[in-house]
Amino acid sequence: MARKLLLENINVPGIKSFDVYRAKGGYRSVEKALKTMSPDDVMEEVKKSGLRGRGGAGFPTGMKWSFLDRKSDKPRYLVCNADESEPGTFKDRFLMEYIPHLLIEGLIVSSYSLGSNTTYIYIRGEYRWIVDILEHAIAEAKHNGFLGKNILGSGYDLEIYVQPGGGAYICGEETALIESLEGKRGNPRMKPPFPAISGLYNCPTVVNNVETLATVVPIINMGGDEYAKIGVGRSTGTKLISACGHMNKPGVYEIELGLPVDEFLNSDEYCGGIRTGHTLKAVVPGGSSVPILPAELFYKTKEGVARLMSYESLSEGGFASGSMLGSGGFIAMDETTCIVRNLWNFTRFYHHESCGQCSPCREGTGWMEKVLHRLEHGHGSMSDIDLLVDIAKKIEGNTICPLGDAAAWPVASHIRHFREEFEYHVKFPEKVAHSPF
Amino acid sequence: MGTVQSEIKFSEEKLKKVQEIISRYPEGRQKSALLPILHLAQREFDGWLSVPVMDYVASLLNIKPIEVYEVATFYTMFNLKPVGKCLIEFCRTGPCMHNRADQIIEYTEKKLGIKVGETTPDNKFSLKAVECLGACGYAPMAQIGKFYYEHLTEEKMDKIIARLGQDFNPDNKYEI
Ligand SMILES: NC(=O)C1=CN([C@@H]2O[C@H](COP(=O)(O)OP(=O)(O)OC[C@H]3O[C@@H](n4cnc5c(N)ncnc54)[C@H](O)[C@@H]3O)[C@@H](O)[C@H]2O)C=CC1
Ligand SMILES: Cc1cc2nc3c(=O)[nH]c(=O)nc-3n(C[C@H](O)[C@H](O)[C@H](O)COP(=O)(O)O)c2cc1C
Ligand code: SF4
Ligand code: FES
Which residues of the sequence carry a binding annotation for [2Fe-2S] cluster (chain B) (predicted)? Predict the structure, then answer.
């Protein structure tokens, strides 16, 4: 059995409650940090652990924390990104719903290290029942002296508040999230300045994903060096993967980074294989924004090396023949899947979610959706296929935030790997309504 | 229910909640309370935000009405038109689509005799299509009130409609 650091106690009855969580060793990292470590000591452990942001970009967490402007006389903020809206991603929900105290514990230790006295959890508005779960956990932690004034007699004060969003994918982008938390529309800001210099209320701010902050708990408990021994290369530690699509056992799994992709998809410990009687056609390994891989390039790189579930291995081959680990939203599709329909659906999503600030993103996603609708419904032409590639290229790199890129990448990769299927839609329009693809 | 909203004022208890929410932010940053309070208002005033409701929220936060309108129009969870007593929000994004979301939506449309975006004449149900709700592994799914209903089938939709058509409280979890 693989090592579990986050979900070790997930099946313990009552683990949602403070008492059971505590009895299982919960909140030890808070005692350790606040009683025996300085804020900088905590940061050093996080740096040593090699932890990389679990929200998708994979930026080293300790480094990000070290960029936080500590010289400014303004208050500093930690904001937990619980907006989780990337299609295929549902791991943060699982963690918050079933083991909420792990997040609260991680938030206390991280806030202490960063010097935040008010920390917000920005959660997507649709997770309404989870707001209640988190608020209950916060109240329990406070009641037991782990939140509020002078925590454990250390002189450190902290309040945590849960802020619901309003239904907007873009508010997961950290600067849009900050705008939203200020009570505004979720329009991303230009970076730099990064939030670490000027974020919430123009104060120095660190935004981290739910899973990233929960992972600080095992790091402090075991020490950064020990944590760094798990995993492979620069992909240290464990990672939550939410697996969905055409498989026997969709769900949330904690893996050690470096697990062979074949084992993840096909062993009974994880996804249990593609649904019985079917074969794998394609995988989107890291949430809808990352490039799609046909089955053969999923299992092995172009050079024939077996792929692993790690940041490096999944991106081996770059955009030409690789993909990304991203948020860990793993979508498997079998041979019944229509790739054109999948892309049309994703593109509609990005068009719907574009905040509208930059014309390449606002207009480009709209065009792409229109052209794909045409192709999918048998009214397309061969030139439409190149038109799509052209529009995608014009969006990429020309926008304020990466939503534009996130919309462009799937278009480029779906067409690169499955061009004949797009051509089939043009050649046999009468067949595509019920095409085998 | 519906279009007539007689008195637009929170109860004393809700006003206390409003004050508690405002106290979460630094002095002068009460605008941060806008989204939580819009949710509160939508829940309190028949499931949608009319202009008078938005104006009321603006007055509570001491901000301009336009600041409320521009936010309410940006986020998809805020309904700017009346909705039926029970709003069913189906996810239609990729992973759900690959697991029969389209069929379940169509089935429900036929059963209720309305399309997505419409409300039944008796004002009991409204249908809405939304994007990925973070339940992709439990597809197809819908949000109804505070909770998610997952692994939907035609039979499950029959049960949901029969049960929630009797009476519906968005804060209740109905075991189907
Ligand atoms: N979990 C989810 O639901 C979703 C995740 N994503 C992921 O988001 C990723 C893109 O996120 P971004 O935040 O735009 O990426 P980014 O690379 O700009 O930033 C990543 C993090 O590092 C920080 N950072 C980077 N350089 C810095 C510097 N020089 N100084 C201080 N801080 C610095 C940023 O503030 C941010 O917190 C995509 O790769 C995608 O996988 C996208 C959509 C949804
Ligand atoms: C369009 C868009 C949506 C995003 N959505 C999320 C999200 O839902 N959750 C998340 O943690 N990060 C999301 N991100 C990434 C954040 O901007 C940011 O990189 C992340 O919260 C940093 O946390 P981490 O370093 O712990 O990963 C999104 C980025 C973009 C461009
Ligand atoms: S790229 Fe799209 S979502 Fe991002 S700021 Fe520009 S218009 Fe908005
Ligand atoms: S695709 Fe439907 S919940 Fe994610």
Answer: 91, 96, 132, 136
